[in-house]
C-alpha cells in the first residue's frame, strides 16, 4: 500500500526518536553559510539527513545536511544544519518535509534563518533582520494538492505567519545585546538565478525589503500545523541594481560566515525565553 506524506513524516520522526532521548519543542533551521551555529548545541546527537527515512538531501554548498538534537541553555532543541530548496528540483512537499517531521516530533516553535539580499536601501551587508511578513513568488504552495487534515486545516489564517509575539521577544533580547534588529518583508522567488534589477524594483514596489529562495514554504507548512514561526534573515548582499558588483553564491557564504557570531549569540540568548513562553 502506498504510504501518505503523513505516514512518511511519522516514520522519519519515529526514527529520530530512536536515536536520541531529548524531545525538543523548539527547532532552528540554519540557512546558507550559517551552519556553524550547530557547534553551540550541547550534548548533541548528530544525524545525517541521508540516514533519516524519506528525508531530502541538500545539494547546495553551505548546507551540511545534518540534524542535531541536543540542548542550548538547558533547553532541548532540534537544529537543522542546512535545508533543501525548490530550485534543486524538489517539490513543495519535499522542501517542507523536514518541517512536517519536526511537527510530528512535537516542535511548537520554529526559528527559520536564511541568507537574503537587501531590497531596502537602508539595510546593509551583515545585518540581521526579523521577517515581519512574507510574499510568496515561488509559484508553489505546500498545501496545494491532496489534503490530509492530520496536518491541519486546508484553509488557515496567515495574518500573523511571522509571529509578532516572538519578534517582540527577539527585539527585547537584541536590545540587551545592544544589537540593532530591524524588521522587513521577505519575498521568496524560485531561483536559482539571482534577480534582475527590474525584478528588484518590482519587488520594492510590492513592499518587499528582502529577497531570497527559501523560508516562505516552510512557514506555510509550519503554520498549517500550528507551529509558531520566527524568521531571521542575514543580509549577505545588496540586491541587483543596488550594488555595483555582480552577485555570487560565494559572496553569500562569505557574508554569512561574517555574521554567524552575532546570530549565534542572539539565538543562544533567545532560546530559553522562547521555550519558557511557548503557547
Task: Kindly describe this structure.
The protein has helices at residues 5-19, 92-95, 97-105, 164-176, 197-206, 216-224, 249-276, and strands at residues 26-30, 42-48, 66-72, 75-81, 109-118, 128-137, 182-189, 210-212, 228-238. It has 279 residues and is α/β, with parallel strands linked by helices. It has a single domain (5-276), classed as Rossmann fold. A 5-stranded mixed barrel has the order 5-8-7-6-9. It is globular. It starts with a helix and ends with a helix. The mean pLDDT is 91.
Task: Summarize the helices and strands and which ones pair or pack.
Elements lengths: L4 H15 L6 E5 L11 E7 L17 E7 L2 E7 L10 H4 L1 H9 L3 E10 L9 E10 L26 H13 L5 E8 L7 H10 L3 E3 L3 H9 L3 E11 L10 H28 L3
**Whole-number mean pLDDT:** 91
Can you count the beta strands?
9
The SS-based structural class is: alpha/beta
Query: What's the N-to-C terminus distance?
Result: 37 Å
- Give the helix proportion (percent range): 25-40%
Number of helices: 7
What is the CATH architecture descriptor?
Answer: 3-Layer(aba) Sandwich
Radius of gyration: 18 Å
Ranges with pLDDT <50 over ≥5 residues? none
Binned strand content:
15-25%
For the largest sheet, list the strands in their spatial order. 5-8-7-6-9
Q: Any idea what the CATH superfamily is called? A: Nucleoside phosphorylase domain
Give the SSE order as H and E letters: HEEEEHHEEHEHEHEH
Gross geometry: globular
Number of domains: 1
CATH class placement:
Alpha Beta
